Amino acid sequence: MNVGCCGVNFGSLSSSIAALRFPNWPRSLSFSSRTLIPFSSLSTPTPMDSSPQPTKPWLLVGLGNPGKKFSGTRHNVGFDMIDAIAEAEGISISSVSFNALFGKGLIGNVPVMLAKPQTFMNVSGESVGAIVSYYKIPLKQVLVIFDDLDLPFAKLRLLPKGGHGGHNGMRSVIDHFKGSRDFPRLRIGIGRPPGKMFTANFVLSPFNKQEREELDFAFQEGVEAVRILLLEGFNKSASFVNSAKSLEQHSQ
Fold it and tell me: pTM of the entire structure?
């Protein structure tokens, strides 16, 4: 028994004080002279998963034009990629918010929002900017997905930032981000128009059967790239995307 000069049991007294000051501590915890608690054990616990977790959700945006007239065309592969992600992750995007088809869900343990602006391509930023502003999403957690004439067909390219490259949808998004280009983007190659075909006609043309098969394969790669991006970080995702083989290469 730990008794002081006045006959006070300091072990019991210390336990009583601890119970008053720290009511959530186990009653078995004692401050007697025989119970020494290392200072390190009272420090803030370290989470099992020490990887940084975003405090805001990711926003995944596909660019395209609304309506059946434009469905399945080259300019709408951004929409198609969002549809592929939604199907793979079980996320519904049937609601309408911020002038976009919109949905919320999880990829792994990361909250995400999926959006397909319904404003028409050239003013996509009106919708995207409103979503980012309302939810206060950091631009580094906004992934914009769009078609790219300068990439080979069905080729994916993930970049951490950049300009609009002449793409009017991306131009609008950058304008509504107050000129900031510091947000990741996933480019999907649609190739160049054949012969003397006008670019405007080409981007609004549909895919043939073989092209659709190649594109569907690219979408599978894109879904996996997005998962890696959100769960493991940009560098691993970019390495995966930028070294991925095409369907034709896999068949050889």
Answer: 0.76
